């Protein structure tokens, strides 16, 4: 399930100006890795995740996931790819307020051809005893756990996490990172995490730094630290 991004360009038209959100971005992500994407606001981090996950199209270059070439897929195939391969986690948990924990996770399960077991998934994220609660009855960290379960139950090949700890306090953020690491180790899921926090970079196998749409640096951590040791900026 290697992800190979090769020379990808993506622009947005914003009135009269063209914003070059990705400039010749190239990147290789190996199976079962945790990859952190660092960089200032507006540097193209979310755009990179969105093109890898098949949310957005791009103008030139190729993205290959396993042997599939996203650039040549028609829209319906790209939707199918996204459902089966990619799980998205956002800073805002995007839970449906009128559905219980279990019903929110069921939304993810129904999208998948090959879903995981509901009870097991609830237990894995530590939310089994709160499965009948509604989002407003949960803390931020618990809501993010539900969002992770909703992505995880699809049994995705990779999780794309866009600032997953951005709205959480330090301790809760560490628990979410620990859960993502546990998912990576338990299921072998590749995890890409966008963050502003250099410390989160230290727990990843690979760190990518972006600036003005370019991937300006890529390096591997020889011995990634545990989430507990993450220093928060
Ligand atoms: P980051 O996640 O690093 O903050 P983004 O990938 O969101 O960066 O954005 C990269 C650039 O593309 C920014 O200049 C941003 O304003 C622009 N951009 C992102 N999404 C859109 C959009 N839907 N329409 C127009 N411009 C966009
Ligand atoms: Mg972003």
UniProtKB/TrEMBL annotation:
Q: Does the keyword Cell inner membrane apply?
A: no
Question: Which residue ranges does the record assign to the ABC transporter domain?
Answer: 3-233
Sorted alphabetically, which InterPro entries does this protein's record hold? AAA+_ATPase, ABC_transporter-like_ATP-bd, ABC_transporter-like_CS, MacB-like_ATP-bd, P-loop_NTPase
The UniProt record lists the keyword Nucleotide-binding: yes
Keywords (alphabetical) are:
ATP-binding, Nucleotide-binding, Transport
Q: Which segments does the entry list as coiled coil?
A: none
The family database entries (CDD domains) matched by this protein are listed as: ABC_MJ0796_LolCDE_FtsE (cd03255)
GO cellular component: a single term: membrane protein complex
Q: Which PROSITE patterns match?
A: ABC_TRANSPORTER_1 (PS00211), ABC_TRANSPORTER_2 (PS50893)
The family database entries (PANTHER family) matched by this protein are listed as:
ABC TRANSPORTER ATP-BINDING PROTEIN MG467-RELATED, LIPOPROTEIN-RELEASING SYSTEM ATP-BINDING PROTEIN LOLD
Family the entry assigns = Belongs to the ABC transporter superfamily.
What name does the UniProt record give this protein?
Answer: ABC transporter ATP-binding protein
